[in-house]
Amino acid sequence: MLAAYYGFWDYWALYHKVTFDGENKLIYINEGVSAIDVKIDLYSDSKEWIRHSADAASFLPPMRTIGGDPTEGGNLAGDIYFLTNGWQIYLTHSVTFTGDLFSDDFSSPFIAGTGVVIGTSKVSALAYQVALDASTLPSETAAAVWGANPSGFGTPASANTFGHLLGKPMGICTSSTLTTTSFSCDRTESDNFWTPKLFVQFTGNVTAELAGFTGKINTYTSNTFTIDDTLPTAPAAGDSFYIINE
């Protein structure tokens, strides 16, 4: 196999998966390489070979490409690659090619050595790219997911979000209402903002009997929570709690 690449040692220094033989217009797949990305390993590397090889400039370029042109609805034509100017890929072993690859001059871009099974060419069913506009597809962005409203995108949309809930909002009990089943607090969200699917957990600066107690929210109106579970004792003004999603 090394004899096939004799005289091309300067190309090996480029660390390509292929070797370009300009005299014979052949592209050899290097030993040990079983997969080729047409865009990277053939097209891009052929341009690099032309730039950096001392004698490559005297040969006609091996490849061309089309694609990227605007089509309907802001979409783009996909990339298609062609071996051109009489170039072909000489296969000495089985290789899988990924990308849309054709030949300008021959029925196939490949030449298979004796006893070699032709390489598999994975091409798209339709060479077509869809241009996504992030400004019109907010549901596809991480920020939108973080801000998605788990209660069905109800009110208010600016809060009750996944990020809001994961941040475990904190509240402080106030003196307006303090019983074993309800308590007022300094939260300022609109009525019914905190849903019955959530819980309050007393922790931090809190009456000793309430430390660690978790109760399921029943209602939230006028800055006051009622809970399904009876508290061991009525909270005191200044007791702290978190709103959690268990």
Q: Describe the biggest sheet? A: 6 strands, antiparallel, barrel
User: What order do the strands of the largest sheet run in, or round the barrel if closed?
Assistant: 13-14-17-16-15-18
Strand fraction band? 25-35%
The SSE order reads: HEEEHEEEEEEEEEHHEEEEEE
Question: What average pLDDT do the residues reach?
Answer: 78
| Count, helices | 4
- Global structural class: mainly beta
Give the termini separation: 64 Å
Number of domains: 2
Low-confidence spans: pLDDT under 50, at least 5 residues? 1-9, 150-160
Describe the structure in your own words.
Helices cover 12% and strands 30% of the residues. By secondary structure, the chain is mainly beta. It folds into two domains: 2-129, no CATH class; 168-244, Elongation Factor Tu (Ef-tu), domain 3. The protein has a six-stranded antiparallel beta barrel with strand order 13-14-17-16-15-18. The chain has a four-stranded mixed beta sheet with strand order 1-2-7-10, with helices on one face. A hairpin with a 3-residue loop joins β13 and β14. The longest helix is centred in the first third of the chain and has 15 residues, at 38-52. It is rod-shaped, with a radius of gyration of 33 Å. The two termini are 64 Å apart. The relative contact order is 0.10.
